[in-house]
């Protein structure tokens, strides 16, 4: 289990649900603020931005440079979004990949650092994130286990103590056959860390399935309008859809239970009603040694306190203490040594 702001990530704790706002605000501080507020209302535990200096992080003239240049915030605007999220009681973090942006985000006291799939091979930045001492959430799209291990080792060697890993398929949208949710168990066993799922699939089914498969974190892209072009709108959920996903995840958590195999309190009455008990198959005389053919196992009336069917073997060879006519429900007082 690892800390993440006021949250805890790991088995036995509620799934941490991240609303990936990213750059779906398209550079509008007002839209971003509205998105943060909407994500909180929809049930997100964490809101996540994507923050970078395009001149440091992308090659000029490329589509990525154009998108992130259009969506960039000033340091003051980024700080305002962090302050807003914290005032609303939700954790906030961002992905960043250049040193100036890292230093800006560090000064804003994020809950932790999110390392995107594209940054998995950027070992110098991973080491810098790790040296911050903050928790790291690492996405693993476009990477096999070997490259994930290189990144995790680099983080640990640089001092990271709290790491979580997300299974991710870097396709937009990611078809169901490519999601490989079982890889979460592989990585949990291999690295000994909490695991989760960064969901690029359509809809909410993959997220709830991931929770059933052991995800401690669900990250899902968030937008106010899926019909908008470019950015990540097409693979995102609008507030109503995100709220439905949160509700489905919480319901899945309830259904998963605590893993202890025991009779739940609501089931006890049915256990009393439906449990099979020992019944005389034929007349049994007082003083007679009981043999197998003397007994049958039947469902008996609710509230009966006769011997349960599990007492069958122990009852064979004992002596009837009274006459037991056929169909008598046999109790502990009816048999002796």
Structural class: alpha/beta
Global Rg: 29 Å
Spatial order of the strands forming the largest sheet:
5-4-3-10-9-8-7-6
Mean pLDDT comes to 95
Kindly describe this structure.
The chain has 337 residues and is an alpha/beta fold. The protein folds into two domains: 2-256, TIM Barrel, CATH 3.20.20; 265-336, Type Iii Antifreeze Protein Isoform Hplc 12 (Alpha-Beta Complex), CATH 3.90.1210.10. Helices cover 34% and strands 18% of the residues. The chain is built from twelve helices and 14 strands. The strands form four sheets. An eight-stranded parallel sheet has the order 5-4-3-10-9-8-7-6. Strands 1-2 form a two-stranded antiparallel sheet. A two-stranded antiparallel sheet has the order 11-12. α1 runs parallel beside α4 (75-87), α1 (29-42) runs parallel beside α10 and α6 crosses α7 (145-157). The longest helix is centred in the C-terminal third of the chain and has 18 residues, at 239-256. The chain is elongated. The two termini are 54 Å apart.
